[in-house]
Design goal:
GO terms for molecular function: identical protein binding; pyridoxal phosphate binding; transaminase activity. The protein has helices at residues 5-10, 13-30, 44-58, 90-93, 102-112, 127-139, 155-170, 220-237, 261-273, 294-297, 339-354, 363-381, 405-418, 444-460; strands at 68-73, 76-79, 84-87, 118-119, 148-152, 175-179, 208-212, 242-247, 250-251, 257-258, 277-282, 306-309, 316-320, 337-338, 386-392, 395-400, 420-421, 423-425, 432-436. With 462 residues, it is of the alpha/beta class. Strand 15 and strand 16 form a beta hairpin. Bound molecules: pyridoxal-5'-phosphate.
Length: 462
Amino acid sequence: MAKTIADGFFQDPRLEKAKQLIKEALTEHQKTITGVKPGNPELKESYDALLKKVAEFRGGALFYNYLGSGIGNGPLVELGDGSVKYDFITGIGVHSMGHSHPGVIEAQINGAISNTVMNGHLQQNVDTAKLLELFSKQACKYGAGVKNVFLTTSGAMANENAFKMIFQKRNPASRFFAFEKCFAGRTLGMAWVTDKGAYRVGLPKTVDVDYIPFYDANNHQASIDAAVKAMKKYITRFPGHHAGFIMELIQGENGSWVGHTEFFEALIAVCKENNISVMVDEVQTFGRTSELFAFQYFKLDKHVDVVSVGKNSQVCATLYNDEHKPKPGLMSQTFTGSASQIAAAYYVINEMVNGGLLGENGKNNRLHNHFKKNLEKIAQKYPEKLQGPYGVGVMVGMSLFKGDEPKSKAFTMKLFENGVLSFLAGGHPTARVRFLMPALVTEEKHIDEVCAIIEKTLLEIE
Ligand SMILES: Cc1ncc(COP(=O)(O)O)c(C=O)c1O
């Protein structure tokens, strides 16, 4: 006997049958998506009109002429003009399960047939409990103390909430440390953390941030010394004024720049001596290395006070230790995430943990090595055109034409036309083109096809 009416409803055999039918229809249709395909000429006019409408009502054109049709198959996605492309950027790292994954769709249906659209901090359904526990247990599995989880709606909000907790604990300290060229989001607060002038033009100052140079693998010890020196100099200049240090351990928006444990530990030691909270921004790194969290990959478990996650996790969150528990009144939000999102997050994170992605020999590393090998071959053939690749796991970047931004942008546009989604990162003259593959559904043969298109496209750029 079902204990609640909801149990009775969710276990009703008619729902099982309906879900089975949806799954059958989905797999039947999606299996016809087998490779890159140009748009249907008959749809060109109406698709262009749609793009124009979006640009008009959005107040500006989209980066790519991308409006999805609503179906895909693994790493392949169909657009509204009937074209099919390889999605190797996944909405900047969101669709880690690729497109139209039957398991994700089933999870979303389970959420969609529950009573409301949105969960929030005042009223959330029982599913939330499972998700909180999953985040917490996974984050703490090697001994980290970040066991408390506050759900939120975007990566930038996860960072905002982290900053609030840290500032409150360290009050009256009002400054933050961040890495040069970091990206932390685009809220009024995060616009002053993200190290890109263009993203804060015209905005009033919100947070005082001191920037520390990032790790340089070509100058291991010198870059550690330079970063520590810079940090100490700021601390001497503003004694007792720094509340926290936000660290992106692999810089994503800057083009997959990878840090080093010794580098982070040297800086963390200075933080600990000076009562500065250690915050790791995992919005982009979550689920992309051989560990679920990049702080686990770099073995910083003992040191982290606050961690933000987003993108791959489907629902964003701030994880924090007991010392950073906010006082009543500081935190709340109307929305945590939709019921479908929460169900999908639980499914996706479990798949990331149990689906063979993680570990030394896991798929994230395997795909990385295969992609790297292919790109290195292209780099050897055309050393003037392609340098790299760089990155860890399923974060892969490459320099084109020695970091020339206009040419790199032209390449991404051409690559899109030729059937592969990538994205631009960093800025001139250190621009990179990067990829965030949907690891669970990408196979070596997909990478081979993508690399053939990359090579062809490179030859089309003058
Ligand atoms: C490291 C990092 N932090 C924060 C954010 C902001 O996340 P969102 O765009 O969901 O606000 C991003 C987004 O790219 C990111 O890469």
